[in-house]
Amino acid sequence: MFVLPPPPPRYTIPVAYAAGAANGMAVPVVETNNTITHPEKGCPLQVGEGTYTLQDDLLLATPPPHPSEAPIVNPNPLATVPLPPTCGVKLSLVSLDPRKKPPTFLKSAVTAPQFGDGNSALAAPPVPAKDALKRRKPKNNIIKSSSSFVSRVITHETSAKRLSDRDPNGVFAFANINRAFQWLDLSSPTKEEHLTKVLFTKSHMLCHDINELTKTSSHLDIVMGSSAGDIIWYEPMSQKYARINKNGVINNSPVTHIKWLPGSENLFIASHANGVLVVYDKEKEDALFTPEQSSSSDKEKGKLPLEILKSVNSKNQKSNPLSFWKLANQKISSFSFSPDQRHLAVVLEDGSLRLMDYLKEEVLDIFRSYYGGLICVCWSPDGKYIVTGGQDDLLTIWSFPERKIVARCQGHNSWVSAVAFDPWRCDQKTYRFGSVGDDCRLLLWDFSVGMLHRPRAHHQASTRKRTSIVAPGTQTSNRHRADSAGNRVRSDSNGTEHLNGEIDQTASHPVEPRSRTALLPPIMSKIVGEDPICWLGFQKDCIMTSSLEGHIRTWHRPSDSVVKS
Amino acid sequence: MKGLFSKGSRSSGTATTPSTTAAPVKKDLAPQISPLEKLLQEMGSIRDDGSDKFFGMENYGNTCYCNSILQCLYYSVPFREAVINYPQRTPLDSLEAALATNLRYQNPNAHLEAEALAAKQKASSPPSARQAGVPPNQPQKPEDKDSPEYKKKVALQTLPILETKNNATSYGMSESLFTSLKDIFESVVGSQSRIGVIRPQQFLDVLRREHEMFRTAMHQDAHEFLNLLLNEVVANVETEATKQAFTEKALPPTESADSLGMLTPSTGSKSPNTTRWVHELFEGTLTSETKCLTCEKVSQRDEVFLDLSVDLEQHSSVTSCLRKFSAEEMLCERNKFHCDNCGGLQEAEKRMKIKRLPRVLALHLKRFKYTEDLQRLQKLFHRVVYPYHLRLFNTTDDAEDPDRLYELYAVVVHIGGGPYHGHYVAIIKTEDRGWLLFDDELVEPVDKNYVRNFFGDRPGLACAYVLFYQETTIEAVMREQAQEDLASATGTAETGEARQNGSPLSPPLAHVQSASQVPSHDTAPFSPINRIPTAPQLSSHAEAPEHETPPPLPVQSPVQPPLPPIPDEPAPSLSPKKSDYQLRRERAREDKEREKERRAAEKEKDKNEKLRQKEQDQHNREMQKREAEELERALKASKLDVNELGAENGSPRKSGFGFLRRGSRSISQRLNKEKEPRVSTSDVSFTTPVPEPVPEALEIPRKEVPRKDVPRKSESLQSPMSPMSPMSQTSPKDIPLSNKQPIRGPAPLAKDHSASHEKSGSTHRWRSFSFKKNVNSVS
Fold this sequence. Notes:
Chain A: Residues 459-511 are annotated as: Disordered. The complex is a heterodimer of chains A (565) and B (779). Chain A is mainly beta and 565 residues long.
């Protein structure tokens, strides 16, 4: 007997303001505090190595609307005005503890050159010896800011004390929620109390990243990208900030993802919703951007499409941007740097995965989702595999050296919003990764090289319990042929990381039919919340997720499991 | 300003004339160009395939279900072409002759002139405006130029009106739903204007003549209408074809060549050379594989479908719903399967897969679910995401082209809290003008991202209800993506701008105003209408003067959607006013409500609303003051509002759409006559391939009866006046079965016909397939 509950109280607080409410979030009218709960039954994740136990569920407080943004009491559901984008809570974690660093699987040290190496215009100015170790801070004080961009900053009354007393190796977390940006100390016994909360006027921070290279106990470089296109460089210890791409002077499209260039103190890449990747320097001033180069150059060589509107090799490097690449006129959903720091995997709303050699400003290859847009992407710790997740409810494993699809992973009931490898449970042959999605689920996946090399038909027959081999229809054989034309299996699949500079002439790969692609089932699937999960992170001692409405959940790893380090 | 306000409120007090001859009144006389017109600039010469026509459709009171489906079908290119070309295309000359009378150009500046006139009259003496046929309450309404009601009215008054006439004889057919559909499509295609408003009166007349259940002015289910329309088109076409064949035989060859000569060549030429074009577009085949767990024998049976009805889960995707549709299902306990092999009821495992993929995949999201504890249909507000592109996972191993790529091209959106009321609009991707919103008379270009606003998780009760996917290729998709204009970029640029100059002056003001709509709306329209539908609305508007200080007036404009300008149809004009409120109130109390109780409650509520309105006004004033103040202070102040705002929760939210359900009548008024053929015929199609009928009592309730239909059928058996009483006497568990029984009477008979239905091409209907699991819970 199945009784349907009455309609859920979906909008407990009817008053909501434009972006937040319009995107389905209940928005309070007053400033509230974060809360932490320790669910009684927990939400254990059972896998082969043991049980991950839910430690706590920290709910970030959604800030009230800015007073200038009066509540929309009765939203017109058909209003055709485009809404500003917003997104669920994402976390940036940072720890100074060297033991907490994820294990590396690269055979040799990273040898990638610096971005823009060889352009004398980019050579760093000589730094006086005494300043060499001193980190440069942004200029403006965010607390005393009179900017119309920053609304206000709420500092916890004891934050100074908490900062000085804390375990220096503890983990800091930075989280965006709605128009707020919170700084949390996850190692604190009162971790639900923020250290600082920055409230922006209207824009929402959509993405943020901490520079791993420059972090010290007294300095953290954070960049964050907003729904308005503006980028904030923020140093939380000194509460200083700077605005880059102010008022969208370089690109006024929302920033969908932002990352520090690996190995760079000053440079970071931001992807914008209009299909543009821009490299900025935190130290440089903005300048009105005018495209420098036409895109005609890339066509003549038969390269894959990439409009370089400003090259890193440009001699004009006095101001931002350093480089400006247009990949497509579709939204870039996310991107990820390869562990060897030479390549960039970019996923777009048009369903394409584009592999770039960003140092050489080239697109190496383009793959396509089964259908629908791609949302998230990550690299395996050894750089051999790329996993994407998208609107086809699938995760897709791609082999980077072989340049082909390896398997599709079926298990989500809705779009996949984030994917990450668990480097502590990966080794040379087996890989563990996790994914979260709009279906409120957390899924864990294992795949091994051996398994994936199994013959396809056999593998599929076993996973899908087929009783007969697929009857080859005419369509299938056509696809076969089209496929073999574009089939360029690499022979150097053992040469793990680098695939230096060999430009692929092939334009794009056809979408592999379902009948010829291995299908991987998850090892664990669990509904972990009541709202879509939008971020996933693996730490040495825990798994963390965060959700659309601000639930940050932490699972302890099984105590008995042997964690490799 | 003050004077204006007081005048406005006074005039609103007199705005009780049900006269709908009102011309819209606008203050600015600058000629305006609508977003659609802007979009259509520089389109070159008019094409003859109809792909560059963008017509709204007049709503005759709750006919939005029809409008939205017709629009979707019109922009289903192969369907439109088939309709136009079957049995032949009307020659352009005769079409133009017909259009000369059908298409009525209006003065594009009509509303401007009317406004000017009204402004003048207003300046002199407001009451005189009434004599001029301009309801004096008009001046305040057009303040909200962005309200859909206003835009619809302007569209109706300025755009060319296209009224279709029965042209069936020229097709060599007798008048039917198909011919009236063809009338509409042909006149739109043949029209010299790119934009306009269709009056589908003739189509509705035919529909109502043939189908009793559409005769009321009630809200209908868009999906049911789609299914009925497609079935009806199939039936009409096939009947005509057999008739033609018959006459052809009967008539001497010469004569038939004359009378039908046009028909034969044209059918051969452009598209539909058979009568099966609807099947070729929408029809797919499902295979249900049942594996008897005793003897392990797998029995298969094919069934055709015109659309798929999928059950929904919270936080899922269409992909996942489709996969669930094909998930394995155990037939056990009361649901056992009759195995021919073992000869008896056995436990079995069953799954449904798609064997033949349709070219157009119509997906019905089952948002209306029967709840047993409430004994009625309830709308599910689950968040169900749908991608722009789709492939089907649930195909059989031997399906042809199992990886077929589909693209989303139309979405029918249901707005409202329940199944018996609300509003439908369609969002459609046109061939070369991007996505457009078709909201009755109103046609507006929208951003591509707009399509994603109807997953079901946003406020405003708007959810996608029927999705249309059509086959495409990856190459076509990539080509389109490359061409896709940076609509989103411009959109974001705008928002960026808005944020930058976020000078709290203008936008907040607007917001505040809109906030004050609430009370006036709540109090005003509903009470008088509910009790005495014809009563003037004096009471509600009389409240306006209660304001101590003039409230921001413009606010009220969207509240009361301007009367829809249907001069000859006064009745529907009332509907927009009550619409939304009722919808919500009903949702809250629908179950128990009797008229008396309702009235009592309403009285109380009225009072409350008045109080609330005062509060609200005060609140609004505060808000305005606050804007001028400092940030911090404002934040604190907002705390004070918690209670007030919280209180609003109970009050209906007002949304901008207008034509909602008029009454809150229950579905029981549907006559079961209408239902019968569908039920029995669905049995037909189901049992066709199986020679030995499965025990129906067990088999059918499990999946034959789409869940959605259950209550309707059962209710339809009750007397229309007392829908609840008989129902409540039966135990909920028995309802589907017991009510099903009487209807199933004709089934065996129909089954006999069914054996030959393929050959005879009889007019049986294809039902849409529903996911069946839920029904388990019923039995």
